[in-house]
């Protein structure tokens, strides 16, 4: 059963209400309402004749909502695309179970989005790290070929040799191999100096 069908089933099974405005919104949804799967996108619409569409627009506006209307296939379509406003429409229609379902889906979607953002952020950082390491290795190899690593000062030469011998290690891990050990920022500083030296040799 689709989410639209679930909402309509709840509305039809619910108690009759005396509130005419709420009852009208419920009736409009049962007659021509569609609500998308909230895990994919937020979209609720009512497909009605122009007179009822205008009346629905007026009522939803009274409830502090901001519906929009378009013409489609000889009908007037009243729609909302904000999750909060769709939740408010479910409240207006007294579709409490469907509202809880929607809120649960919103939480699930938010968690998924956060996980995806975190994954993309970590992948971007990993790519930057890999690119930086490759640039450092190329610079060190260039200096080795053109001048020899002994051309570098002792601290820079030590880092250069460790970088070449341990291409997959992180800066922190390289720092631990130095004698005495150096922090990640210290290793990074030395490698930047090496890259600048390689650039000046190229020029």
Write the layout of secondary structure elements.
Blueprint: H1 3-13, H2 20-32, E1 33-35, E2 44-48, H3 50-62, E3 68-72, E4 75-80, H4 83-92, H5 96-146, H6 154-165, H7 171-177, H8 184-202
Helix pairs in contact: 2-3, 4-5, 5-6, 5-8, 6-8, 7-8
Number of helices: 8
Helix content: 55-70%
Strand tally: 4
Q: Shape from CA axes?
A: rod-shaped
- Lateral arrangement of strands in the main beta sheet: 1-2-4-3
Compressed to H and E, one letter per element, the order equals HHEEHEEHHHHH
- What is the strand content? 5-15%
Give the C-alpha Rg.
Answer: 32 Å
Distance between the termini: 69 Å
Mean pLDDT: 88
Please describe what this structure looks like.
The chain is of the alpha+beta class and 203 residues long. The protein is 67% helix and 9% strand. The chain has eight helices and four strands. It has helices at 3-13, 20-32, 50-62, 83-92, 96-146, 154-165, 171-177, 184-202; strands at 33-35, 44-48, 68-72, 75-80. A hairpin with an 8-residue loop joins strand 1 (33-35) and strand 2 (44-48). The longest helix is centred in the middle third of the chain and has 51 residues, at 96-146. The model has no long low-confidence stretch (mean pLDDT 88).
């Amino acid at each position: 059963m689709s989410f639209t069908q679930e909402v309509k089933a709840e509305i039809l099974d619910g108690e009759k209400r005396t509130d005419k405005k709420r009852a009208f919104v419920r009736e409009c949804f049962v007659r021509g309402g569609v609500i998308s799967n909230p895990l994919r996108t937020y979209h609720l619409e009512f497909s009605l004749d122009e007179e009822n569409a205008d009346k629905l627009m007026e009522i939803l506006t009274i409830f502090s909502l901001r519906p929009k209307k378009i013409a489609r296939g000889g009908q007037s379509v009243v729609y909302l695309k904000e999750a909060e406003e769709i939740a408010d429409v479910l409240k207006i229609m007294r579709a409490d179970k469907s509202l809880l379902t929607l809120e649960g889906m919103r939480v699930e979607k938010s968690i998924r989005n956060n996980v995806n953002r975190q994954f993309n952020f970590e992948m971007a950082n990993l790519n930057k790290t890999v690119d930086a390491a490759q640039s450092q290795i190329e610079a060190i190899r260039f200096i080795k070929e053109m001048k020899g690593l002994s051309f570098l000062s002792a601290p820079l030469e030590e880092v250069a040799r460790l970088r070449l011998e341990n291409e997959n290690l992180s800066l922190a891990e390289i720092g631990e191999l130095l004698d005495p050990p150096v922090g990640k920022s210290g290793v990074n500083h030395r490698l930047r100096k090496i890259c600048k030296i390689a650039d000046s040799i190229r020029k």
